[in-house]
Amino acid sequence: MSGLRWNKAFALEQTADDTELLQELINIFKDSCASDCALIRSGISRLDGAQVASAAHSIKGAAASLGIEAIREIALAIEMDGKEGKIEAAAQRFPELEGLLFELKNL
């Protein structure tokens, strides 16, 4: 999990050390990321920076609340790319986000 740079202690603190709740939140995050990634992919193909930014913003916020720093950082970069209309840059970063989300499946 080193690629994710997950601060599990922070995440547990957010759930008052409730490991069951934390796992439930991680599962919800995994599901929401799947739909948000579909929105990013669609936004990139349609050159819709606002859609890219919005979906990346959603991933960024959820990752931050769970202490998953690597996903938060790349989602922030993609969000900024979308806001600035840099669709090609977002498209180039997107595989890194997908790779991290694949790694997340093991949490």
List the helices and strands and how they pair.
Layout: H1 8-14, H2 19-45, H3 49-65, H4 69-83, H5 87-104
The CATH architecture: Up-down Bundle
Number of domains: 1
Q: Uncertain spans, ≥5 residues at pLDDT below 50?
A: none
Radius of gyration: 14 Å
Query: In whole angstroms, how far apart are the ends?
Result: 8 Å
Portion in helices: over 70%
DSSP summary, beta strand count: 0
Strand percent estimate: under 5%
Order of helices and strands: HHHHH
Overall mean confidence score, pLDDT? 96
The biggest sheet, with number of strands, parallel, antiparallel or mixed sense and barrel status, is: none
Q: CATH topology, anyone?
A: Four Helix Bundle (Hemerythrin (Met), subunit A)
Provide the structure class.
mainly alpha
Output the CATH class name: Mainly Alpha
Distinct helical segment count: 5
User: What global shape is seen?
Assistant: elongated
In short:
By secondary structure, the chain is mainly alpha-helical. The chain has 5 helices and no strands.
Question: How would you describe what is shown here?
Answer:
The protein is mostly helical and 107 residues long. It has a single domain (8-104), classed as Four Helix Bundle (Hemerythrin (Met), subunit A) (Up-down Bundle). Helix content is 79%, strand content 0%. The protein is built from five helices and no strands. It has helices spanning 8-14, 19-45, 49-65, 69-83, 87-104. Helix 4 packs antiparallel against helix 5 (87-104). The N and C termini lie close together (8 Å). The model has no long low-confidence stretch (mean pLDDT 96).
